[in-house]
Amino acid sequence: MKTTILLSCLLALPSLSFAASDDCAKLPGQGMESKLNSKLFKSLDNIIRFGNLKGSLETLPNDTRTVRSSSSPKWLQAVGKMITHTSSTKQVQCSLTLLSDRPDKDGIIAVTAGHCVDHWLFSKGFQIGYNQVTFTSNSGKKIKRSIVEVLKVELNPGDYAIVKLNRAISRLDIQPLLSSYYHYSDLLNDEDFSQAFDAYATMAGYSADRGLGQKGKVLTYDRKCLLHGGGRGLKKGYCHAYDGASGGAVVVTVALDDVTGDIRDDLQLSGTTQHFFVGSIVGQRVGDNNSKTMFTENAHYSHLLDGILEAH
């Protein structure tokens, strides 16, 4: 049975422009995905997109999200907001997540939803248009970058894009999230990991609902929400998210102790807890409300992402 997804993007926000440079060399063997062609895009006819969204949704009653503040978890700083132009008069807002494979590296690679960049696809590949990416620290410091290259993209059966920024962001300003080597279900399984506390999942993005999300002006996150199963690539989480959150982070927090000592040693981690990136927000199924959010698990493309992160 075909899966129908409402993909979360927001148009008609205040215009933001940032010229993308073209001085970024492609990785050997990466770049345009050969199967990303007209045939693939025709297979997306069963997907409803919010490309012509007018206005923002009302916040659901009993929404469990929190607005990011100075006292929020620091890993939320790695979730940024991106504005891309689809024409001279229209633009799209999505979210994206800054990633690295080791805690001692600066961040230049990010993951977002594939439908957030597909309007850059032309007959001969991607033509990166005007765009601006903004990361904000918990203290309010803003760091602006742009996307200069789409290294990998897929819209079906997963919905994700791996992109490169025009310049690296120092880990002293924004610490990139670590992409998990483990499936999210394993991280959440107390029999395999720490008993210090129950591991939990969080979804975070720039949801543009009229209430908590303030029409996409603030980062909101739903903590300790339930991640579920699903088809290949796309999974469901019982977490609140709205238009504009596409590309935002799905993170599992675990305790580091003797049980997870191999993770600590391999990645040279410090502290008692660690937050692992396990996927990115996509949207929702038709018939569901905004308390049920679909996401693309990073396990769907981890072999590609790992190689890209290692090369940077």
What does this structure look like?
Strands 15-16-17-20-19-18 form a six-stranded antiparallel beta barrel. The longest helix has 10 residues. It is 8% helix and 36% strand. It has a single domain, classed as Thrombin, subunit H (Beta Barrel). With 312 residues, it is mostly beta strands.
Q: Which tags fit this structure?
A:
single chain; 312 residues; mainly beta; Thrombin, subunit H; 6-stranded antiparallel barrel; two-stranded antiparallel ribbon; 4 helices; disordered N terminus
Distance between the termini: 39 Å
Shape: globular
Q: What is the annotated CATH architecture?
A: Beta Barrel
What is the strand content?
35-45%
Order of adjacent strands in the largest pleated sheet: 15-16-17-20-19-18
For the secondary structure, the number of strands is 20
- Give the helix/strand class: mainly beta
CATH class: Mainly Beta
How many discrete structural domains? Answer: 1
CATH topology: Thrombin, subunit H
> Compute the gyration radius: what is it?
18 Å
Query: How many helices does DSSP assign?
Result: 4
Low-pLDDT parts are 1-54
Helix % is: under 10%
The major β-sheet equals: 6 strands, antiparallel, barrel
Secondary-structure element order, as H and E?
EEHEEEEEEEEEEEEHEEEEHEEH
Round the mean pLDDT to the nearest integer and report it.
79
